[in-house]
Amino acid sequence: MIQNFDVFNGDADGICALLQLRLTSPQDATLITGVKRDVSLLQRVPCTALARVTVLDVSLEQNRDALQALLQAGAQVAYFDHHYAGDLPAHPALRMHIDNAAEVCTSILVDRHLAGACRHWAVVGAFGDNLTEAARALGASLGLDATQWALLQELGESINYNAYVDAQADLIVHPADLFRLLYRHAGPLGVMEDEPVLRGIRDIRADDLGRAGDLAPRTSFDGGRVFMLPDLPWSRRVRGAWGNQLGHEAPVQAHAVLSPASQGGFVVSVRSPLLRQQGADRLCRQFATGGGRAAAAGINSLPLDRLDDFLQAFQRAFDRTSLPG
Prior knowledge:
It is built from twelve helices and eleven strands. The chain is α/β, with parallel strands linked by helices.
C-alpha cells in the first residue's frame, strides 16, 4: 500500500506551503516536522518503494544522503525549497522546485506551482519568513485593506515564532498540531480571532521582544551589530524574530544574535542587511552546522572556542568598505 509523507519545516513558511498543497490536494499523510532548526528530517522517512514524499522548506544540501537513499529504494519525491542546495540531483522519481533567490520562500514556490490557488496562505508564509516586500507584492492582487494586511502579517509572524526554540519540549504547540489546527480554516483572515493558541503565541512574542530590546550590542561597526542573549527560555524563542526586527530598524546593517546552546557554545542567527540581502548563508557555511539562505541563515552549534572566529568572519562579510558597489 502506498504511504504518503509530508516533510516540512515547522516554521511559518513550511506550514503555509503545506497548507496550500493540502487545501488544494487533500491526502492522508504522515507528518514529519519539528522545531525551526530541526532540518535533518528526511532520514525519518522509511526507505521503501511505496513511499510518496513531499518535502517543503527543508535544505536539500543537509538531507542529500537521505534523499538519495529514498530515491534508490524506489520512493517518489516532490521537493520544494529556497535554501542553498548545492548540486541538484537528477532522478526520474524526483520533481524539484528549487529557487534560492533572496526574495523567494517556499510558500511563494508553492504559490507558483498552484497558480495562486491559495494565495492568502502564501502571503502569510512570506510574512512569517520576513519577506515583507515579497509578501505585499504577492498579495497585491487580493484586494486587501489595511486591517487585513495587518492580520496576515501578525498571523505569519506568530506561526513562525512558535518554531524558534532549540528543543521540542520548549514548543508552545508542536508544528504538526499547529498545521492540523490551521488546516481547519480555508483562509487565514479569521484565524487570530478564532484560535486562542495563536493569540497566546502573539502575546508571548511581544513580551519577549520587549525584553530583548533592552540589550546593548556586544559588537558594533558600520556594517553590522552582534548581540548576545542570556541563557534563558525567552532568549531561545526570541533569537530569530529579534534578528528580523533589528533588520527592519537598521536596514543597512547585518545582524547576528547569539544565545547559549544547551550542549555548550552558541546557537547563532544571522540576517543580511535588508537593503542588500546577500551573504548570510556564505558566512554561516564557513562553520560546521551552519546553513540557510542568502538573507537569513544560522549556525546550530558554534563552539565557544570559535566565537572570536565567527565575530571576525561576520565583520569581514558585512564590512561595507569591502562590499561591491
